Amino acid sequence: MEFKIGIDKIEAELVKKKLTEFYGKNYWGADDKFFEWMYFKNPNKSLLCDKDKYSFLIFKDKNEILALDSFYCEIIIYRNKKYLAIWDIEWNNFSNIKGLGSQLVQKMHILCDVYLGYKYNSLSYKSFKKLDCNFIEEIERYVLIFEPDILKDILNIPKNSEYYDFYKFSANNIKLVDNINYIKISDISKIENKYYIDYLSRFEMAINKNVDYINWRYLSHPYIEYDIISTDTNGKCGIAVVRKEFIKNYKYCVVRILDFFPTFGNEKKLLGGIINYCQKQKAILVDFFCVSQKIKEKIDMFPFLPLTKHRQFFIPRLFQPLEIRERQSINFVYKILNKEIENSAINDLYATKGDGDQDIKVNREYQTVSL
After folding, report:
1. What is the reported pTM?
2. Which of 215, 240, 211 minimizes the C-alpha distance to 227?
């Protein structure tokens, strides 16, 4: 049995074949364009892999993939020093060797300073627990509702309910903030660096989201279209990355904020630009997910409301298709491996989430064959 950090083109095809056999022929994670973008073109890949390799850890036996763990690398900045973070995307054990998948996670822990991941389930939770990982059951999610009546109707909520009252309360808050015309930035080379400088000084721990990152993560995505917006052509007030998402089987859409980088003193101005964007898209709601539990101390997000304080009102987060779940945000797993980093720093980590597996399906249905 051989262990490898980074896989070549031939091994990448074996991995895609294995994923397709396990999940079904339309599985998004084996899609050629997505696979190339995520695992080969990531600008930080060379921090762990050779430039001609794909970012996977695998156990293999000759031409048989026994277990895999896909990932991408990030640079995290903590107290003005750079550290290596790894986002764990997916790990699978295809063999009958017990614990082979979690062994890959253990090896990942050796390779990085900070280990990060979204969307653990009851099964992976047990494995992560054995590896002394830490958990956030629901990261903060900020929501603003524009169309309470439409939301009420598609969720079959009665008019005389506290849910509908909350939806109206959220929508009424919009008029308390200035509506400022947004500008779509098509040439990111013209964006001033102040958004980045202010962003790094605002949070104790921050992912290195410079212009190169934005270009790869958003402008180079093979399927999903994003808009980078501001209230001025050079992003002096900061920038936001947003995406319009149509609700499957409905004519309505929502807006997801992927990143929010206001410069100091321009928080309300950029929020006003986002509101203007949402209204012009005719969105019924907009939301923003962020790991930092201290973001409310750093940025006044009003009229957005934190769902950790209002979770009883059931605002859906899944729209492909529309689905109500008890959890209204996303869970998060992490482990600090470098002793230079205080464990509590994770409470002020700026990391965001806006594209779930269902968003990346590129409108392709699949059913896990192995279940």
Report:
1. 0.91
2. 240
